[in-house]
């Protein structure tokens, strides 16, 4: 019979589909199994419409291979095709019978017409691995069967054939191996099983294949008996399509560990089904521990994406915002717009709707955990809290309203983690600000000179120990109408009116002394001031302006930029401390020694703040000189 030419625009389209559209050759099996599933869906739908008595249990896909002949066979007992359908569906590239079927039955129940293929190109992925493809098919209710055969771009033939039952048998004649490609790898039992498990595990019909088992012969060491049994390779019913009532925590945990290769149970699972503008099933997990590479560039975020149970993408990054990148799991949607190869998503409105819906779901589950299982939430925060903070800071604080109630900081009260909401509810009467301090550790922050007065007044202080913390506070500005104030800032205002008045008087009385100290510390501090914040300590270091001492440390540690921003340092002195009387005496009697005292006090203030002193040897020499 004369060979027919494809009716597509040109042979170049088929060449492009075979060589360029698909990222991985192995997905040919996914595409052919999906087509077989569609054929059985169509027959099942016809049976329901015409009372043919065919149930889903009557339908299956059979997979086999022949190493000697180098063939792979995919057989189904679906609706099959007649000659015209072979011409229209396989003779015209990119025309899908499934798509037309779905259009023709748009009013039917979604579950009944949930066919997968919609573009009519998946069948041709077979040519990525096969030099020749045959399809023996017989349409349900017809007498005549047909054999469609093609060796690729050269065209195809359709001949009359014999076939007892309806359905289709696709035979792939694999290409010869080359230096770059081992096509023979697909002629291995384990390879076909793994591909079915990876891509088609949740096809609703059983995918069966002869599987060989070896057992040692009794009494004959090194000899084995081989038996071959037909086994179902796929699990068929996805766990996420089962109701929550059917599943136990153990089943969720085992699924997570098996699918995502974690040896630990997840911290929580989130199982949701959403219908409406965004229709999808989702099964999400929050790991108990962060992966070893989580905070590195090598970590790849994303959820598995399924379309009607068929794996489309292993990591779809577009379904998760960066601040929830620790979430693992999957989404199964029937409504996503996929491109021609099904491997890439079109960035359309539906995808964005799913992402936003997932975002709300994850946030709500975290908030629920925070309210109902504090211990578990604090375990989560220990592992992934930093990512939430980065998310709040990123995008110039666009997500601050969304994320701020998930934040935890250590409080000076009992050194326990607290939310901003909890802090505000415990604020003292008359307190109008949320006080915080930034530094290396809670232990060091708790000994800062500035904390004494606040503790004395019964005010809580948030101790911020991550490098990003102060930048977050800058983004937040306030919480529940309460402004954030750093106790390490020179304008931190927590003195009483009487204390402020007294400070003003002492400043006026000692302005010449303060000027002399500032002169001796020229280039090191922007100002020297009397402080009303201090109790037992003689001095502390604060800053003026937007760049704090902690910011200076963080930005200074970053590589690259040579122009490191500097804080305007302010040396604050406790006028009620005995050392102040000594300074007054030296101002009147020994200005050279006063300068030495000023240097020592400044260096002490630096050490208290966790900053390096410029010359440790000189500092030690000055201290020793005072001791003799």
Notes on the structure:
With 628 residues, the protein is an alpha+beta fold. It has four domains: 11-232, Heat Shock Protein 90 (2-Layer Sandwich), CATH 3.30.565; 239-378, Ribosomal Protein S5, domain 2 (2-Layer Sandwich); 408-486, Rossmann fold (3-Layer(aba) Sandwich), CATH 3.40.50.11260; 497-627, Heat shock protein 90, C-terminal domain (Four Helix Bundle (Hemerythrin (Met), subunit A)), CATH 1.20.120.790. Helices cover 35% and strands 21% of the residues. It is built from 19 helices and 22 strands. It has an eight-stranded mixed sheet with strand order 5-4-3-6-2-1-7-8, covered by helices on one side. Strands 15-14-17-16-19-18 form a six-stranded mixed sheet, with helices on both faces. 36% of the residues are buried. The model is unreliable at 94-103 and 110-119 (pLDDT under 50).
At the fourth level of CATH, the homologous superfamily of the largest domain is: Histidine kinase-like ATPase, C-terminal domain
Largest sheet: 8 strands, mixed
Tell me the total number of β-strands: 22
CATH architecture descriptor of the largest domain:
2-Layer Sandwich
* Number of DSSP helical runs: 19
CATH fold name of the largest domain:
Heat Shock Protein 90
Strands ordered across the widest β-sheet: 5-4-3-6-2-1-7-8
What overall geometry do the principal axes of the alpha carbons give? elongated
What is the gyration radius calculated from CA atoms? Answer: 36 Å
Structural class: alpha+beta
Mean pLDDT: 87
Low-confidence stretches: 94-103, 110-119
Helical content band: 25-40%
CATH class placement of the largest domain: Alpha Beta
Strand composition percent: 15-25%
Separation of termini?
114 Å
What count of structural domains?
4
């Amino acid at each position: 019979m004369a060979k027919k030419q494809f009716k597509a625009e040109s042979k170049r389209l088929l060449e492009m589909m075979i060589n360029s559209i698909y990222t991985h050759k192995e997905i040919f099996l996914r595409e052919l199994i999906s087509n077989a599933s569609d054929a059985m869906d169509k027959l099942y739908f016809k049976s329901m419409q015409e009372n043919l008595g065919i149930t889903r249990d009557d339908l299956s896909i059979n997979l086999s291979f022949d190493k000697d002949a180098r063939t792979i066979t995919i057989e189904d007992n679906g609706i099959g095709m007649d000659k015209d359908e072979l011409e229209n569906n396989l003779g015209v590239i990119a025309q899908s019978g499934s798509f037309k079927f779905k259009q023709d039955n748009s009013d039917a129940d979604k579950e009944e017409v949930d066919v997968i293929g919609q573009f009519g190109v998946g069948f041709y992925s077979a040519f990525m691995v096969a030099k020749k493809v045959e399809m023996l098919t017989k349409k349900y209710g017809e007498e005549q069967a047909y054999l469609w055969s093609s060796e690729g771009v050269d065209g195809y033939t359709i001949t009359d054939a014999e076939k007892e039952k309806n359905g289709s048998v696709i035979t792939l004649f694999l290409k010869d191996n080359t230096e770059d490609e081992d096509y023979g790898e697909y002629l291995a039992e384990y390879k076909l099983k793994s591909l079915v498990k990876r891509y088609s595990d949740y096809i609703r019909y059983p995918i069966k294949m002869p599987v060989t088992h070896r057992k040692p012969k009794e009494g004959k060491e090194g000899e084995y008996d081989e038996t071959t049994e037909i086994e179902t390779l796929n699990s068929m019913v996805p766990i996420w399509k089962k109701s929550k009532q059917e599943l136990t925590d153990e089943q969720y945990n085992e699924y997570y560990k098996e699918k995502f290769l974690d040896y630990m149970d997840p911290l929580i699972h989130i199982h949701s089904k959403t219908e409406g503008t965004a229709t999808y099933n989702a099964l999400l997990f929050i790991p108990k521990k962060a992966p070893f590479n989580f905070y590195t560039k090598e970590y790849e975020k994303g959820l598995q994406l399924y379309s009607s149970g068929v794996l489309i993408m292993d990591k779809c990054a577009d379904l998760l915002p960066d601040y929830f990148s620790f979430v693992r799991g999957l989404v199964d949607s029937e409504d996503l717009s996929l491109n021609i190869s099904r491997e890439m998503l079109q960035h359309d409105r539906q995808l964005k709707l799913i992402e936003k819906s997932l975002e709300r779901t994850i946030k709500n589950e975290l908030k629920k955990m925070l309210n109902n299982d504090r211990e578990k939430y604090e375990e989560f925060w220990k592992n992934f809290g930093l990512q939430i903070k980065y998310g709040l800071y990123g995008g110039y604080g666009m997500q601050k309203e969304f994320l701020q109630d998930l934040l935890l900081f250590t409080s000076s009260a009992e050194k326990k983690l607290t939310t901003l909401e909890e802090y505000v509810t415990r604020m003292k009467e008359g307190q109008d600000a949320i006080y915080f301090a930034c530094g290396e550790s809670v232990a060091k922050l708790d000994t800062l000179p500035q904390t004494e007065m606040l503790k004395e007044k019964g005010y809580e202080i948030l101790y911020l120990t991550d490098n990003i913390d102060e930048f977050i506070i800058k983004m937040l500005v306030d919480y529940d109408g309460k402004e954030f104030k750093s106790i390490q800032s020179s304008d931190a205002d927590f003195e009483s009116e009487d204390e402020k008045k007294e400070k003003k008087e002492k400043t006026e009385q000692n302005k010449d002394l303060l000027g002399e100290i500032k002169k001796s510390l020229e280039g090191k501090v922007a100002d020297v001031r009397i402080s009303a914040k201090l109790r037992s300590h003689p001095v502390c270091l604060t800053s003026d302006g937007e760049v704090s001492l902690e910011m200076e440390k963080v930005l200074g540690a970053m590589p690259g930029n040579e122009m490191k921003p500097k804080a305007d340092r302010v040396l604050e002195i406790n006028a009620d401390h005995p050392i102040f009387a000594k300074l007054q005496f030296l101002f009147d009697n020994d200005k050279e020694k006063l300068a030495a005292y000023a240097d020592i006090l400044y260096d002490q203030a630096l050490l208290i703040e966790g900053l390096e002193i410029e010359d440790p040897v000189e500092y030690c020499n000055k201290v020793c000189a005072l001791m003799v």
